Amino acid sequence: MANPGLGADLLPLLGILMASGVLAGTLAGLFGVGGGVVLVPALLYAFDFLGYDPIFTTHMAVGTSLAIIIPTAFSSSHSHYRKGAVELFLVRKLMIPVTFGAVVGSVIADRVGGDMLKGLYAVIALFLAINLFKKKSIILSEQLPSQGFTMIHVFIIGILSTMMGIAGGALFVPYFSAYNHQMLKAVGTSAALGLLIATPGAIGFAVNGLDVANRPPFSFGYVSLVAFLCIIPMTVLTAPLGAKLAHQLDKLLLKRLFALFLIAMSLRMFYKMI
Fold first, then answer.
1. Higher confidence at residue 70 or residue 72?
2. Which range of residues forms the domain containing residue 45?
3. Higher pLDDT, 184 or 228
4. Number of folded domains in the chain?
């Protein structure tokens, strides 16, 4: 049930959601992430504020984030494709395992509690922050592992990304960079793969939440239609801006600022689990 006297605070809340959409869209284009690392904590805050049942707020945040990522990832990957930064042969090669991983991730998420999803987000966000602080990526090899190992790796990334409510770019970019992929192509290809994670992941969360009792109004399963409509215009408009900036800026400072943000979000998730 929503908090009484909510109307006076609704506009600032909508402002927070729209601002998170701007940040998420820009990050999607800039770093090849789907923006879920920003959206999930923002949505959790919004749903807590609205008085949603804590039993399913985390699932709602993750499912809504994945739904928002679909047009965001499309906009970002299209912008990178126009700049020749998407390796289509690699996307075609990995589309089956990464899509299957997203489906499996949505099934697992439906069977675990919200604290488990928060913990997964916190641990991986901390790992990503540490990775972003490094000046150079660690190069494991000059090329990707054998096809079998690569498919296993991306399958696991698909599972983890879906359970976190992200598009996988935050994991794919360091993965591709570790195998000596040029940074801009790693970002562009990750954005395209993010679309293959977000689409089945969002559908899975929507379907799995349909039979949940006392869901918030204006929701489809674990997807909040209100948050979706508030945030989508912002992410779609700003993703091309991020892609443009990715081809113009020295991103070391930006990466470190983003890393500090991830650390803060990770600590907040750990705190909410206590």
1. 70
2. 10-273
3. 228
4. 1
